[in-house]
Amino acid sequence: MELSYKRIKLLLSTVVAVCVVWACKTSREETRQPTGQKEEGLPKLKISENNRYFITGKNEPFFWLGDTAWLLFKKLNREEIETYLEDRKQKGFNVIQVMTLHSLDMANVYGDSALVGQNVSKPLVTPGNDPSDQAAYDFWDHVDYTVDLAEKKGLYMALVPVWGTNVKGGGVSQDEAEAYARFLADRYRSKNNIIWLNGGDTHGDQKTEVWHTIGNTLKAGDPDKLMTFHPFGRMQSIDWFNEASWLDFNMFQGGHRRYDQDDSPRGYGQDTWRYIEEGYGLSPIRPTLDGEPSYEGIPQGLHDTLQPLWTADDLRRYGYWSVFAGAAGFTYGHSAVMQMYRTNDKAAYGNKELWYDALHSTGSGQMIHLKNLMLHYPYLERIPDQSLVADQGEKYNYLVATRGKGYALIYTYNGRLLKINMGKISGDAIEARWYDPRTGKSIDIGTVENTGVREFDPPGEPRDGNDWVLVMTSKNG
């Protein structure tokens, strides 16, 4: 009986002793930069001197604007990956969050399995990486292609090594996790555009030893790459790993539930800014961000498909609330894109929209305005400062404020009247304007004395989604 390409690849992988994964050499690995050679491509990401933000190796501010593409490696071919990455580049995203292994039987759109025998310690690696040769182009070559293409487009890849359900279910032992993490560290050591998201929608107090093994092994094998832990909904990485030496920045999952649906111990509901506030004063100081807010187009509460869907308005609220509260960035998500939904797929969460149509969703095109606003002003001096707000409000009425020495930004989700305590930034007078998070355009207010409590009335009638940012800058600064 004639052997298929895939069976030949599996046999070939055994011949080349794939079980000793870190010793396997693909043609890509053979051309890896030797130590000390001049770096090319994207600069490495680092933590700022004040430990609150990200910077590049050139000490330039880096505002994390992420997109959630969990199943990209599984569902998209090379041409589709090009389409997706180019779209996200044009929309101003700079970090793409992806599951490396969604499941232990993971295979890509070409039918290439990621593992031998569903064992993470045995990645299925074959010699060569020519995409025209089905016997040579394997799952990991497909990952390499994506990482390299993303780098060319100025995008960083935030990779989850293995999704949490696989570890929680007992499918990954400590020894297997160590071997797998060594493989990843060795294979991607030369790639500056990789960030590690340990975990994956899971509790860090379950199989903790495996998560520490992955984190410590990746950090030992490739210490320059930033790493965090992607936690279960309405939880934070610091809930379990605040003292972990491998944790470079904090990530929380704001989750997908309304105020009345949140049954978690915190009970923050939609007040995602509270996660930032909670961890802001902890030691050691780290950057923090929401790595999974409510996705645009997904049901409120996630599982009941008869519930209303989260909208672009909600994503803007989550973004501005968390960033103004002190976050180092924000990750957007869309239900169809995160699962790369295609015709005839089994849809999750009742999704019916095709991924390539959802690329053009309203919210995805509006996230760049948050990034542009934050980087327009001196970024690394920025702090959250609620003392600017005389009437903070609750839930959708909540006003959140951030400032530098010569500027202040206050966000309202529903366009209600703002009462602002002046004198918090330098100068006897300030220039005020309204910034529209939907368009990135501004409306001048004029010059205002920088004293007392002053009222600012946003354009339009108060209603949820009529959101505005009050921008105040020192007239002499």
TrEMBL record:
Q: What is this protein called?
A: Putative collagen-binding domain of a collagenase
Name the source organism: Pseudozobellia thermophila
Ranges for the Apiosidase-like catalytic domain?
48-380
Give every Putative collagen-binding domain span: 383-472
| Gene3D superfamilies with a match to the protein in the record | Glycosidases
Q: Which InterPro entries match?
A: Apiosidase-like_cat_dom, Collagen-bd_put, GH
What PANTHER family does the annotation carry?
ENDOGLUCANASE (PTHR37836:SF3), LMO1036 PROTEIN (PTHR37836)
